[in-house]
Design goal:
153 residues; alpha+beta; 2 domains; 6-stranded antiparallel beta sheet; 3-stranded antiparallel beta sheet; 3 helices; 11 strands
C-alpha cells in the first residue's frame, strides 16, 4: 500500500510492507529537511497515496467494496458503545475515537468488534487503521474494526 500524509497538500511517504515479526503493514522512513519541505506544514491525516481531498471518506468507501471476515457474520448482537475510546490502550487511538459517535460494539469469537458509522470516518484525522470489513446494520453502513488487547488488529 502506498502511503501519504495530507494537510494543505499531499506528502508521499512510501510503500507499506508486511513487517518481519507480525506480518502487519509497516513503514519506516527517515526524511531529510529538504524532503520535509514538500510535506504539508500541518499533517491532518494519513491515507492511501493519491486520495487527495477526499481523504478518509474515500478510504471508507474503498473498504465498503470488499466486506470480509467478522463483518460478514450474521449472528452478531450489536449494542451501542457510547465511549469507544475506552476500548483502546494506545493514547493516540483513544484521542482519535473521542470524536466519533454512533458506534456499536459486539463480541465475536473472543474478539471485541467495534462498528463505526461510515459517515464518521472523516473525524479520524491523524490515525491510520485497518478495517476488518463493512456491514450494513439497520440500513446504515458501518466500518468494522477488530480490537485485541486494546489495539486494532
Amino acid at each position: 500500500m502506498r502511503l501519504s500524509v495530507y494537510g494543505e497538500r499531499e506528502g508521499y511517504l512510501g510503500v507499506m510492507l508486511p513487517g518481519p515479526d507480525s506480518g502487519h503493514l509497516t513503514i519506516s522512513k527517515r526524511l531529510s529537511r529538504a524532503a520535509l519541505r514538500d510535506f504539508p506544514s500541518k499533517i491532518e491525516y494519513a491515507g492511501t497515496a493519491g486520495a487527495g481531498a477526499a481523504g478518509p471518506a474515500l478510504e471508507a468507501e474503498a473498504v465498503a467494496e470488499e466486506p470480509q471476515s467478522a463483518a460478514d457474520a450474521e449472528d452478531i448482537l450489536w449494542i451501542p458503545e457510547p465511549n469507544p475510546w475506552s476500548l483502546f490502550s494506545d493514547w493516540e487511538q483513544k484521542e482519535a475515537w473521542r470524536s466519533v459517535s454512533g458506534t456499536l460494539r459486539s463480541e465475536h469469537e473472543n474478539t471485541i468488534l467495534l462498528a463505526m458509522p461510515s459517515g464518521e470516518a472523516g473525524k479520524m484525522k491523524g490515525v491510520y487503521m485497518t478495517a476488518d470489513g463493512v456491514r450494513e446494520l439497520d440500513g446504515e453502513k458501518y466500518i468494522i474494526f477488530k480490537i485485541d488487547d486494546g489495539k486494532i488488529n
